[in-house]
Write a structure and sequence with these properties.
520 residues; mainly alpha; DNA polymerase, domain 1; 4 domains; three-stranded antiparallel β-sheet; 3 strands
């Protein structure tokens, strides 16, 4: 950091060349028609900068944004009785930056090479986002964020090549005073926002692909500690036919329990298995522990089938009391279903996409995972059927109704973004990634419920369509077997819960409650 506290004696006057620049600056301010008092403050700040630079052996041509920061922090012993402020404040910072802007505009100072190189990369990144189909507003915001990052790196004396994840976190958390004339205006409200973090990671990935910065380190899961976990996951995939998303959930649950169980299945006993689940009730919800218990049973079943533990330990896993059957499935009438579908604006790409997704949920009673996982190759247009795999990898073919097929065709041909991704439903805005299950269940369904003005349906979920389809079929006289076939249930007991939703029929069956003194 430049400092003249312990350096050579300070000059009593500003070098003549720099004085000439300050005089030109004064003429420039006068030409702008600024008030006389304002001109005096700005000229005083410029003269102060010139004196400080001369005291450190620098000319005005070396003045840049980093030196503005050093100028603001210096312990002032600058000569000159006309310097009204010995220690610059925030107001003087703005004056110094304005003087720097004048030097840059007149060619008397130059943009640092680091900022100039970073600016070229920001331009290329913006062009890349434009090619990917990002909205103009997103490109503008990302450009400002990336320029801010470049300026902060320069002010922090960090080369762009060293901008790893740790540096990026420092940037998102820094107390911002960053600015650069003609390159970055003072940003407001960026630190810690999720949008800034995600866009900065995208910029970092762009730079990493071009070998500007090192690739981020991918955290490695410590699977070597749990000797049998990888074999268990392979068994779930090959012998149980579970989907990858289900396997990931099982892996997370088992990893949570293994520290208490230990890695030696031969040492497992009924007490250890039981206490592992019961102890979890003190730190997790009943629903979460119930799912962990199911995963543990599957893990013990795998160990038992390979003679790694006693097979009967499966029965030692306690059953966590659930609330299954305590309430009726949430549902709405067919009229409400049609109102929700009608809320989609088919004049927009997003509306065409949402309508196709809602029709799949409503007509075929699909789950959100079925819709998000649908591939282009799963639609057989010639036979008018689609293939879905449900919760397992066993595919089932379902007939494709006319209105559903028309909606899918219109979305794919007219509104779906061009992409190499084979999933049917993609984000309408760049990056055009496949929609996740939560996007179907919460965003699309939630928007339709809100716009249709439907109240009292509880938490937003795509299962509202599935429950409503089953309920409305039963009320129209369809047998439980037909409803189970539509829902692709394995067990009739699962479908039987919908028999309780026809309250009108139940009222005809119920017997009056005998009061005291009456004969039943």
């Amino acid at each position: 950091m430049p400092s003249h506290q312990d350096g050579p004696p300070l000059p009593d006057v500003v070098p003549e060349r720099d004085c000439g620049v300050v005089r030109c600056y004064a003429e420039h301010l006068e030409s702008l028609g600024l008030p006389a008092a304002g001109q005096r403050e700005l000229i005083g700040a410029a003269r102060h900068v010139a004196v400080w630079l001369a005291a450190n052996g620098l000319g005005l041509g070396k003045f840049d944004i980093r030196l503005v920061d050093h100028f603001m922090r210096h312990e002032c012993r600058c000569p000159g009785r006309n310097l009204t402020v010995r220690k610059p404040g925030r107001r003087r910072r703005r004056f110094a930056v304005r003087f720097l802007r004048y030097l840059l505009e007149t060619g008397r100072a130059g943009v640092p090479a680091e900022i100039e190189a970073g600016g070229h990369l920001v331009v290329k990144f913006s062009e890349f986002l434009e090619e990917q189909g990002y909205a103009c507003s997103v490109i503008r915001q990302s450009g400002a964020l990336c320029r801010h990052f470049v300026v902060w790196l320069y002010l922090s004396d960090i080369p762009l090549a060293a901008a790893d994840e740790r540096v990026q976190r420092r940037f998102l958390a820094h107390d911002c005073t960053c600015v650069h004339p003609g390159f970055l205006e003072r940003p407001i409200g960026f630190a810690g926002s999720n949008y800034s973090g995600s866009m900065l990671r995208r910029f970092a990935a762009f730079l990493a692909e071009r070998d500007v910065i090192p690739l981020p380190k991918v955290p490695q899961l410590r699977t070597e500690r749990w000797e049998h976990l990888d074999a268990f996951l392979h068994w779930l995939r090959q012998h149980r036919g579970l989907r990858d998303t289900t396997i990931e959930r099982y892996e997370g649950h088992v990893r949570t329990l293994l520290p208490a169980l230990g890695d030696d299945p031969g040492a497992y006993d009924a007490a250890r298995v039981r206490n592992t689940i019961l102890d979890r009730l003190d730190t997790a919800s009943r629903g979460e522990v119930g799912r962990e218990a199911s995963a543990l049973r599957m893990y013990l079943r795998f160990l038992g089938s390979n003679d790694l533990c006693r097979p009967e330990l499966v029965h030692a896993v306690p059953r966590v009391p659930g609330r299954r059957g305590e309430s009726l499935p949430r549902h709405v009438g067919q009229g409400d279903i049609e109102r929700m579908i009608a809320t989609c604006d088919v004049a927009t790409p997003m509306g065409m996409r949402d309508r196709a997704a809602l029709l799949l949920l409503a007509r075929l009673a699909l789950r959100a995972g079925d819709v998000s996982g649908l591939h282009l190759d799963d639609i057989d247009w010639d036979r008018a059927v689609i293939r879905v795999s449900g919760k397992s990898r066993r595919a089932a073919e379902l007939p494709l109704p006319q209105d559903v097929g028309d909606a899918l065709r219109d979305y794919i041909l007219k509104a779906r973004p061009r992409s190499d991704v084979r999933k049917v439903f993609l984000r309408s805005r760049a990056p055009h990634l496949p929609l996740k299950r939560n996007s179907i269940s919460v965003s699309i369904v939630g928007r339709a419920i809100s716009q249709a003005g439907i109240r009292g349906v509880g938490p937003t979920s795509s299962h509202l369509f599935r429950h409503s389809a089953a309920t409305n079929l039963l009320r129209d006289g369809a047998p439980l077997e037909a409803v189970g076939a539509l829902l692709r249930h394995r067990s009739p007991d699962t479908t039987a819960i919908y028999a309780r939703v026809d309250v009108r029929m139940l009222r005809e069956l119920v017997q009056p409650w005998p009061f005291e003194g009456e004969t039943p």
